[in-house]
Amino acid sequence: MIHKKPVLGICLGMQLMTDRNEEGGEVGLGWVRAETRCSITGPDLQAIVSLPPKWYKDFPNNESILGKIYNIYRLLARKEKTSNF
Predict the structure, then answer these.
(1) Which of 18, 29, 62, 71 is the most buried (most CB within 10 A)?
(2) Which residues form the signal peptide (predicted)?
(3) What is the residue-wise DSSP string for 51-77?
């Protein structure tokens, strides 16, 4: 972020801006000093992924989006060194 311009990253965009992803250790863009991590693992992950969103019935043709939108990732920020002013 050389020019210090505001940037908004949503979902995958925010994950790409971090230093790395814990799944496979893939390297990100490194714009945000953080690591992307999965919040849930094991049997709980499958249980949540299979649940349909509560708002799906508000959309036409809801069968096509049923169970496709969920959020299980979080960012773990790294501490920045601060100056002693």
Answers:
(1) 18
(2) none
(3) SPPTTGGGSTTGGGTTT-----EEEEE
55 or 73: which leads in pLDDT: 73
Domain ranges of the chain: 12-77
How far is the C-alpha of 25 from the C-alpha of 18, rounded, in Å? 12
The number of residues in the chain equals: 85
Please indicate whether residue 11 or residue 33 has the higher confidence score (pLDDT): 33
Phi, psi (5° rounding) for residue 44?
Answer: -65, -35
The 8-class DSSP code of residue 19 comes to E
- With left for phi above 0 and alpha for psi between -120 and 50, is residue 70 left, alpha or beta? beta
* Higher pLDDT pick, 64 / 23: 23
For the chain, the C-alpha Rg in angstroms (whole number) is 17
With contact defined as beta carbons under 8 Å apart, do 28 and 21 qualify?
A: yes
Rounded Cα distance between 63 and 51, Å, is 13
